[in-house]
Amino acid sequence: xxxxxxxxxxxxxxxxxxxxxxxxxxxxxxxxxxxxxxxxxxxxxxxxxxxxxxxxxxxxxxxxxxxxxxxxxxxxxxxxxxxxxxxxxxxxxxxxxxxxxxxxxxxxxxxxxxxxxxxxxxxxxxxxxxxxxxxxxxxxxxxxxxxxxxxxxxxxxxxxxxxxxxxxxxxxxxxxxxxxxxxxxxxxxxxxxxxxxxxxxxxxxxxxxxxxx
Length: 213
What we know:
five-stranded parallel sheet; alpha/beta; elongated; about 50% helix; about 210 residues
């Protein structure tokens, strides 16, 4: 499952903009779990600009703004509009490379469903949904996937895919750097057949040892 979803994310976001992940949830407790899980997987969390945080505070009745953003920190009720506000603000922030909506609630599924399409249509950055809720949320997950929204049903798989994405981006950046000469080739490498082709077992192992692989 991780391999399949990681490949899907790489197909969509491998060439996306630089910057860390900005997450939004309607649960303060889940925000903490998301932050810990992403950090444990080596996924960088974005540091939003102060203007982005001010925009969230100005446009929604939340008590604070940060990353991850708890969009339910304001008055009780439907927090989908506040979630949309935060996600769109993060989408416009240059420090953000991917936005993530992390959800465990089964209430307000229709509104939560609609706002994901709004964020994807905004189209500034890749957008990922992690909606954990068991059988109660299976219909909305299936619907989002049919509509092309990359949707996970577990936080572990989400973190695994995002980790793969950022490791891939790091490798691409490193491969673009000029290669520094490591000095003369080891003796084992100089003895290789010049015509190329397959190496026998002894040659291959000698070559790997020569480069400390």
